[in-house]
Structure to design on (919 residues):
């Protein structure tokens, strides 16, 4: 007996996600000034990136934006070697590429982004990294191209 | 009037990579009929149906409505829960809570997934924040690889240590007729399998499966009439700790640490390694099978490899972990957490056949998913006070 | 059933598009208001149940977005994917189980962020029904036509519901579409899918709501005016539209029966003082009135014609303006509970039905009212 399947065709679910006030500020600073901003909780004094309205542990509204460095320390990372379809673009991701979490100077949580792996031997936990920006910026996270290793 | 609650029957499908012979509703029906048979009940006996899966894997909105023919929920109270990877364990907790409330005597809880119907990693990516996390995220594998990198850096854990976990689980799966991957593997095979995301190789990672699982929860008023060995829920706890992946603390699985602590306190467990007889750990990858034993308080941070190499977690060890073969052998995501519950129940009921651990009195099942979230449940052969 | 009370409610204004706010922002606003209303802090909340839908949010673990905003840090939490009335039900059982003394229930959605008909199209079976392009509105049109045909309900009677509810919304500062309409306005509004016209349908809405439930001991500690849950029930009918007679709502009747039995209600028309019911479309208010026992089968049209469901009528329906005036999916049912709570408390301001002791709240899940959840709320002596 033949067993059939049915494809979803060209089904798309387009969305327009609201970024929110703090997120919008972050992305605009990124796009217009190549600057990274975090937000400080008035209660626990932790600084979070990207900035958001509520400090989770304190359940506290946050208002104070803090300019962060575009440099930091690599706290965890991996090198992606298997390709998968990127749901944002519908295109299969070209591999290999680096992906990691960076503790930006001045910040208490970490920031995830791509890591440049031109020299894989330098990509280590504890390495110092710096953001590299795209020429053509659109006001989203990809305005940062990747973080490159600048030291041990 | 709050009630004590027990698992009185379980059912699951024979998990495979692709069940092209059934649609989702039929897959659910298979597990449901098995559970009802196991408990010697019929659909008429069921007061409530609770179902869950991870929506974007099958692309169906309002699954509790869509599946009603197969779930047995027709003209009954039917409700859906979904929390990503933790769905299965969240469902188990809901089965417990709904029956414990005294409003329902017998609840049928169903977890299922037809992962073959979509690109799993792409779908998992859509679980994460669309503005901050999704653009760079690399699915479950990428996220877990990052956790592993921190763990290896903190304690000098090696890929070989992780491979030992896989060998154990795949060996156990060989004896589990329901498991998806039933071929044993060696350490060398794990180490030489293709690298997915450093340090996770193909054999370090769980598969994705098509499968369904159903568990029947019953109140103390009826549990002992239904089955000889009801499996009593002593307690549940969970932490869906992080909202943004950026906030994750990669040193230990924080959510599991916090949830375990609460659970042990609630259930009077002081020495988990000694007092627990079996654990079905929601372990989607090998390194988790080391780090998360530490997070559960079974040993000190960094010491899990010793526990595993010493055979403590093997079938004949002091505290067998994943006698079913675990998630490394079988992973229909929405069902996976519930399969952990079903497997634990089977252990206590003495129904686990070839993968039975002798004399199980106290057992734990966990759930993992989302943004490094954890659920945990403790079960006992004895009725809790 | 042991006593469980609603001791705090909070909601955002329901609007067409909250461009500046994320899901988390809306939920944080609703939760903060609910805590204020109950005079509590997040420390007093023992556990949380969030309500959200992956398709509406465009995100397959939609509950992830609102963790911090719900005060879920280091707490037990779960998520129900379905209308707010169902979410609150689970929240209630977590207290009845004696696991927790208080539960915070949240629900949210932003209809503005997606194409609603694509989202509701995804409710339908991908093999047989979805390719036909069926969505929330067209399926409702099928049901409306069947219902009107079987019981002789007229388009005018449906239009009366819309006129009433939009007028009621004028008393509700949270509602999206307060409007003075004439019957003609509704009848002449743009046809969406025969017989449903624009003003017969609910709008697209962004909004969130939060409700705090507590056991008796905790309720009495925090408030002098707890609103008790007297009865509650839910039930789901068949899925494929052709598997049931769309003119009937058997699952609503069963859910209502369960709730009424628990609450000791034998004559809902007389004993319910006010009801907030799920009027996603004007004909639905008539159908659900019948299912809830406010009138006989097929009597929904006459009920509204006689003015019985007006603010001053025998069984006021939707003094808040209902879903016709504001419809943030998922949140809508929780808002019905919140509105019913305000009624029993005597705190509904201009939309108060005087002397409300027993109120009913109702929510719907699934296409064409497949699944219903009914709540009966009462005051101290109700």
């Amino acid at each position: 007996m033949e067993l059939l399947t049915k494809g979803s065709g060209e089904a798309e679910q387009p969305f327009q996600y609201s970024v929110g006030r703090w997120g919008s500020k972050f992305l605009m600073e990124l796009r217009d000034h190549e600057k990274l901003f975090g937000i400080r909780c008035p209660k626990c004094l932790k600084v979070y990136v990207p900035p958001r309205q509520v400090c989770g542990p304190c359940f506290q509204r946050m208002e104070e934006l803090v300019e962060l460095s575009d440099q930091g320390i690599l706290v965890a990372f991996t090198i992606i070697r298997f390709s998968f379809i990127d749901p944002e673009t519908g295109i299969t991701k070209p591999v290999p590429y680096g992906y990691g979490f960076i503790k930006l100077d001045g910040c208490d949580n970490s920031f995830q982004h791509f890591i440049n792996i031109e020299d894989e031997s330098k990509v280590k936990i504890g390495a110092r990294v710096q953001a590299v920006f795209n020429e053509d910026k659109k006001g989203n996270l990809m305005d940062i191209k990747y973080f490159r290793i600048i030291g041990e | 009037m709050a009630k004590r609650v027990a698992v009185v029957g379980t059912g699951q499908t024979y998990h495979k990579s692709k069940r092209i012979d059934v649609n989702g509703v039929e897959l659910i029906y298979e597990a449901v009929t098995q559970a009802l048979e196991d408990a010697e009940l019929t659909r008429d006996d069921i007061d409530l149906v609770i179902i869950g899966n991870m929506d974007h894997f099958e692309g169906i909105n309002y699954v509790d409505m869509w599946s009603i023919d197969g779930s047995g929920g027709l003209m009954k109270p039917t409700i859906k829960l979904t929390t990503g990877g933790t769905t299965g364990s969240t469902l188990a907790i809901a089965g417990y809570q709904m029956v414990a409330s005294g409003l329902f005597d017998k609840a049928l809880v169903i977890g299922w997934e037809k992962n073959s119907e979509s690109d799993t990693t792409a779908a998992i990516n859509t679980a994460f924040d669309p503005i901050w996390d999704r653009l760079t995220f690399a699915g479950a594998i990428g996220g877990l690889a990052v956790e592993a990198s921190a763990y290896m850096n903190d304690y000098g854990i090696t890929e070989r240590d992780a491979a030992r976990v896989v060998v154990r689980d795949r060996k156990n799966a060989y004896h589990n007729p329901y498991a998806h991957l039933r071929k044993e593997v060696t350490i060398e095979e794990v180490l030489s399998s293709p690298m997915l995301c450093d340090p996770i190789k193909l054999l370090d990672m769980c598969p994705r499966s098509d499968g369904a699982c159903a568990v029947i929860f019953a109140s103390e008023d009826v549990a002992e009439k239904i089955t000889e060995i009801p499996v009593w829920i002593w307690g549940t706890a969970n932490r869906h700790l992080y909202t943004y992946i950026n906030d994750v603390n990669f040193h230990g699985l924080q959510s599991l640490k916090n949830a375990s602590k609460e659970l042990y306190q609630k259930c009077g467990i002081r020495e988990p390694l000694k007092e627990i007889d079996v654990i079905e750990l929601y372990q989607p990858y090998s390194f988790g099978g080391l780090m998360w034993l530490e997070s559960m308080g079974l040993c000190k941070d960094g010491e899990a490899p010793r526990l595993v190499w010493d055979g403590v977690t093997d079938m004949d060890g002091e505290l067998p972990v994943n006698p079913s073969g675990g998630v490394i052998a079988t992973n229909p995501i929405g069902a996976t957490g519930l399969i952990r519950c079903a497997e634990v129940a089977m252990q206590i009921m003495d129904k686990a056949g070839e993968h039975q651990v002798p004399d199980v009195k106290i057992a734990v099942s966990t759930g993992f998913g989302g943004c490094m979230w954890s659920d945990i449940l403790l079960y006992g052969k004895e009725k809790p006070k | 059933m042991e006593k469980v009370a609603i001791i705090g409610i909070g909601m955002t204004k329901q609007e067409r598009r909250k461009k500046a706010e994320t899901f988390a922002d809306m939920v944080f606003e609703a939760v903060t208001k609910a805590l204020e209303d109950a005079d509590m802090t997040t420390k007093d909340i023992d556990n949380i149940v969030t309500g959200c839908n992956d398709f509406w949010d465009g995100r397959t673990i939609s509950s992830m977005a609102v963790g911090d905003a719900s005060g879920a840090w280091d707490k037990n939490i779960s998520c129900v994917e379905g209308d707010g009335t169902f979410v609150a039900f689970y929240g209630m059982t977590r207290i009845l189980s004696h696991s927790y003394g208080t539960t915070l229930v949240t629900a949210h959605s932003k209809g503005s962020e997606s194409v609603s008909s694509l989202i509701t199209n995804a409710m339908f079976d991908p093999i047989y029904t979805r390719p036909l392009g069926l969505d929330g509105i067209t399926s409702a049109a099928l049901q409306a036509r069947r219902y009107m045909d079987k019981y002789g309900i007229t388009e005018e009677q449906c239009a009366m519901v819309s006129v009433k509810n939009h007028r009621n919304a004028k008393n509700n500062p949270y509602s999206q579409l307060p409007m003075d309409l004439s019957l003609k306005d509704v009848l002449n509004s743009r046809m969406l899918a025969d017989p449903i016209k624009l003003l017969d349908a609910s709008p697209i809405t962004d909004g969130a709501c939060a409700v705090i439930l507590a056991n008796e001991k905790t309720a009495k500690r925090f408030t002098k005016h707890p609103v008790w849950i007297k009865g509650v029930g839910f039930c789901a009918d068949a899925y494929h539209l052709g598997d049931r007679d769309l003119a009937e709502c058997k699952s609503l009747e069963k859910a209502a029966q369960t709730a009424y039995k628990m609450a000791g209600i034998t004559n809902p028309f007389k004993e319910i003082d006010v009801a907030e019911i799920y009027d996603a479309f004007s004909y639905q208010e008539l159908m659900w009135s019948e299912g809830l026992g406010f009138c006989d089968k097929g009597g929904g049209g006459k009920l509204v014609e006689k003015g019985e469901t007006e603010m001053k009528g025998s069984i006021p329906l939707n003094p808040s303006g209902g879903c016709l005036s504001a419809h943030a999916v998922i949140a809508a049912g929780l808002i019905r509970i919140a509105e019913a709570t305000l009624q029993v408390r005597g705190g509904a301001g201009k939309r108060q039905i005087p002397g409300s002791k027993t109120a009913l709240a109702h929510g719907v899940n699934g296409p064409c009212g497949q699944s219903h959840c009914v709540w009966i709320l009462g005051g101290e002596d109700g």
